[in-house]
Amino acid sequence: MIQAAGTGKLVVITGPSGVGKGTLVRSLLNRHPDIYLSVSMTTRSPRPGEIDGQDYFFVTPEKFQELIAGEQLLEWAQFAGNYYGTPRQTVEDKVQQGTLVLLEIELEGARQIRASFPQAMRLFILPPSMSELERRLRDRQSESPEAITRRLNRAIIEIAAAHEFDVQIINDDFDRALTEVESVLFPNLPELSLPS
Ligand code: 5GP
Q1: Alpha carbon of 73 to those of 12, 64, 87: distances in Å?
Q2: Sign of the CA dihedral with 170 first, then 24, 176, and 191 last
Q3: pTM for the complete prediction?
Q4: Pocket test for ligand 1, best of 40, 75, 133, 171 (most atoms within 8 A of CB)
């Protein structure tokens, strides 16, 4: 059985919107089905193809406030005009059971996790450049021009905080970035060959 790094089993992946975190995480889950990816709550609207309960739990602002008041979120933050948060119970149960739990969350949430789960391993994914990040955000055509501007402004703040994380990985070459993430999570894993 391969053990994750550190004493904790909680791994946080953060990085600016458009950096490719989602794609990295999906590949990671395909290759390591034992990893549990936490499904977040959000007040943002579903993008085409997103499924409630799978990509996110899509909730109303009122419901989100109830979750905060009931202390049912392990962390939460406002991001580009919407609320996002991690359901507390599921994550705590999975960690308790010894499962490697992955949170794909933004900077404010990652800071809260550092306070509540200091043993968590925290990774920051960087773009090769701001212009490349902007190109990726525009290419995915999922946001309005205003939303893209908000996300780019937020990206500048997030990137400035990358040094707060245990590990920084530049997503210029996808396969290399994925191998680097794996070598952090599974330091004892022999290098695997990636499908071309
Ligand atoms: P998106 O709207 O593109 O799906 O996500 C926007 C940002 O919110 C991304 O940086 C994503 O990592 C972050 N995010 C997703 N779920 C959560 C969460 O539960 N908590 C926090 N703090 N951020 C989240």
Answers
A1: 15, 9, 5
A2: positive
A3: 0.90
A4: 40
